[in-house]
Amino acid sequence: MKIYTKTGDKGQTSLIGARADKDAPRIEAYGTIDEVNSFIGKAMTELDEARYADLLEDLENIQNELFDCGGDLADVRKSPKYKMTDEPVEVLEKRIDELMEEPPLLERFILPGGAPAAATLHIARTVTRRAERQTVTLMKADENVPAVVQRYLNRLSDYLFAAARVINSRAGIPDNEYVRSAKVFKNNGRAKKAEE
């Protein structure tokens, strides 16, 4: 089976219902979501199942949801059949709250790093933020974009931050604080990520 089609050799690719230039905002957005998915897959290879079974389950679900997000952004038919709903957003919120109870209290910004999987999830988090920015740009230019994708990406970056901290905590690796950071995290004694 050949995986190359040569149909993109002139700088265009297929959406669901149309063709578009490969550098179009819609392609940039779902292409960046694919990058996030790849980094998450890499992080999963760096986690042992015994210690991180719950995170591995989360991340596998997230990988499938990211495929749904990409597919929804690629669907430009007049009556698209979107797969994403608010339920995965709500699941992420619940998991973020649970995970943030586990590591030590956080008062200052931290530097990405620690265990290999944590560092990889920090990369995934920053790429998720880029995907979100690109999705917002796309939403401004084209009203036919499911807003739930942007909400999901927004919540996912918070989840990845929380998961990276949990990985380091379970591995016995302390957070490396940004030395010039003020105390920015406050929430009744429990830490939450300040970025919205």
TrEMBL record:
Belongs to the Cob(I)alamin adenosyltransferase family. Keywords: ATP-binding, Cobalamin biosynthesis, Nucleotide-binding, Transferase. The keyword Nucleotide-binding applies. NCBIfam families: PduO_Nterm. It catalyses: 2 cob(II)yrinate a,c diamide + reduced [electron-transfer flavoprotein] + 2 ATP = 2 adenosylcob(III)yrinate a,c-diamide + 2 triphosphate + oxidized [electron-transfer flavoprotein] + 3 H(+); 2 cob(II)alamin + reduced [electron-transfer flavoprotein] + 2 ATP = 2 adenosylcob(III)alamin + 2 triphosphate + oxidized [electron-transfer flavoprotein] + 3 H(+). This is Corrinoid adenosyltransferase. GO terms for molecular function: ATP binding; corrinoid adenosyltransferase activity. It comes from Planococcus lenghuensis. Residues 3-166 form the Cobalamin adenosyltransferase-like domain.
